[in-house]
Amino acid sequence: MAALSRIPKTSIKSLSSCISRSFSITTLNSEIDLKVPSFLSHNSLPLHQEPKEGNIQWVFLGCPGVGKGTYASRLSNFLGVPHIATGDLVREELNSSGPLASQLKETVNQGKLVSDEIIISLLSKRLQAGEAKGESGFILDGFPRTIRQAEILEGVTDIDLVVNLKLREEALLAKCLGRRICVECGRNYNIACIDIKGENGNPGIYMDPLPAPPQCAPKLIQRADDTEEVVKERLRIYYEKSQPVEEFYRSRGKLLEFDLPGGIPESWPKLLEALNLDHEDKCSAAA
Description:
Elements: H1 12-28, E1 57-62, H2 68-79, E2 83-85, H3 86-94, H4 101-109, H5 116-132, E3 138-141, H6 147-156, E4 161-166, H7 169-178, E5 179-182, E6 188-190, E7 194-196, E8 205-207, E9 220-221, H8 228-250, E10 255-259, H9 264-274
Parallel strand pairs: 1-3, 1-4, 2-3, 4-10
Antiparallel strand pairs: 5-6, 5-9, 7-8
């Protein structure tokens, strides 16, 4: 499918101020219609061909634990654009002594979605910091999660592509329960060995554990919200609140559905292929 021609980009600084302004407007008057771009046909898919100078604006969607952060981060390094994960912004605020920390802790530990007000505030702050450093373009991970957020984002900038990562629910649950974090370096590892047999036309899925190196192994912890009860609640809320966002972008011809075939070694080259990105010279990125 042919790629769409590119359009002028909103600067990081303008995007930050516009997001804050649009959110304030919609908070004061919910009847105000946000501008909806009409340049995309329903059936077109803007697969990117040759990213240049970091001038891309992508969004990663997917259930909690599917690997949005992992693949968005790899593409961030691959393309030279910032990876902005709202989950990381929330965790940074949780670990701070800021005024939102106690409110966020209760929300996250119950598996609930963080309010639009807080997410918009954290994202605007992050974009302002990026603009001060001269950042250009972005890959958003964890935003938007609701139709309201998607409408706000669409009203202030033109998203090129929305990648929707998909994985069977039993694999998602196993991944989340096996996730571990090093308290010293902050890196993520996984102790789960996932081996799900194919059935009813669904292919089998195998994922090796992602073991920590010796220096991190004794310092691993499990996130407070990575319990079976909380993970299942997060998935329930995702299906209820976030799946309509998929249809929002699908109807605009911007959604790329990608079923993860396995772990990183199997999925990374196939994702690059689906994105029309040349990975022959960067195979080491899958290591």
